[in-house]
Design goal:
The chain is 53% helix and 5% strand. It is mainly α and 337 residues long. It has two domains: 81 residues, DNA polymerase, domain 1; 207 residues, Orthogonal Bundle (hpI Integrase, Chain A). The N and C termini lie far apart (60 Å). Forms a cyclic heterotetrameric complex composed of two molecules of XerC and two molecules of XerD.
Length: 337
């Protein structure tokens, strides 16, 4: 499997995220093969592979997950056949389930403004507020155990010493910068947590973003996001930075690079304060940014480039959201609707 992993990295240019996912899929297939009495993946035929994929669906795996597993299997067997490990490719006719495109959940303009205002209000309050203090900032090591950092006790991070009177909470400043930047730019959560200090260009208000497939793009952001970033960088980040911080733009309580789990917790927590807002995660802010760009008249191909979509078809799903809003407004306002 390590040879196949190297093939994915070097010859196919796949990201580490994709490589890990494919290897996990193949390990699951190998476990299934052994359940069925086969000694190795090379002992499986097309019928076996179809049965395994069908089992995934009956066990509740999402269509997108089953489709990825089918892609992993096809890639592995095509590679193994080319390398001479198999006389023929049993997965050549293995089909993926048809993926259904569902409309993404989005915030309306009022809800988005309320979310950003809630984060800004929390950042402006002095002292450590309860929500930010609850962050545990745990990282998981390769064995799956929480890594609490040097000198950690395992107690919640919020039980440390209180901030001096009048001091702003650095996590509140970070949270405000985080949600402003996500909504302003529409970047993915993986792209957000991967940002380094030198990825920001305040003079042009642009980000250098490393997206899927290690594709780099430049994304603009607005004045409110710049203000939030300036405050975080001048008043928040210096309170958290440690030798372990490196060049990371966004830090957790223990000074390490923030991780996607923490970002999800922040977004869910802030959205819970917004009346009638749907319970969305970070990707919901990305959906909202794209939809609001199209609502405002942005060209579809410009939005595609901003979001880092390789296919225009992926971006077009947001046009359906905008058209639905247009129809709703028409039905509400037109006398002959």
């Amino acid at each position: 499997m390590e040879q196949f992993a190297q093939h994915l990295r070097v010859e196919r240019g796949r990201s580490e995220h994709t490589v890990r996912a494919y290897l996990g899929d193949l390990r699951a297939l190998r476990a299934y093969a052994r359940e069925e009495g086969a000694e190795d993946l090379t002992d499986l035929g097309l019928t076996d592979l179809r049965s395994w994929l069908a089992r995934q669906g009956t066990q509740g795996a999402a269509r997108a997950t089953v489709a990825r597993r089918a892609a992993a299997v096809r890639a592995f067997y095509a590679w193994a056949t080319r390398r001479g490990h198999l006389p023929s490719d049993p997965a050549a006719r293995l089909a993926s389930p048809r993926r259904t495109r569902t409309l993404p959940g989005v915030l309306d303009h009022v809800q988005a403004d309320a979310l950003l205002q809630s984060a800004a209000d929390a950042a402006a309050r002095p002292g450590r507020h309860v929500d930010a203090a609850a962050e545990t900032d745990q990282h998981v090591d390769a064995q799956g155990e929480p890594d609490l950092g040097p000198g950690a006790t395992g107690e919640p991070a919020g039980e440390g010493p209180a901030d001096p009177p009048g001091e702003v909470d650095p996590l509140s400043l970070r949270d405000a910068a985080m949600v402003e930047l996500m909504y302003a730019s529409g970047i993915r959560v993986s792209e957000l947590v991967g940002l380094d200090l030198d990825d920001l260009d305040p003079s042009t208000r642009t980000l250098r973003v490393l997206g899927k497939g290690d594709k780099e793009r430049t994304v603009p952001y607005g004045v409110p996001a710049q203000r939030a970033l300036d405050t975080w960088l001048s008043r928040g980040r210096p309170q958290l930075v440690t030798p372990a911080s490196g060049p990371a733009l966004l830090l957790g309580r223990r000074g390490r690079r923030v991780d996607p789990r923490q970002v999800r917790e922040v977004v869910h927590r802030l959205l819970a304060r917004v009346p009638d807002a749907p319970d969305l995660g970070p990707h919901g802010l990305r959906h909202s940014a794209a939809t609001h760009l199209l609502d405002g008249g942005a060209d579809l191909r410009v939005v595609q480039e901003l979001l880092g979509h390789s296919s225009l078809a992926t971006t077009q799903i947001y046009t359906h959201v905008s058209v639905d809003r247009l129809r709703a407004a028409y039905r509400q306002a037109h006398p002959r609707a």
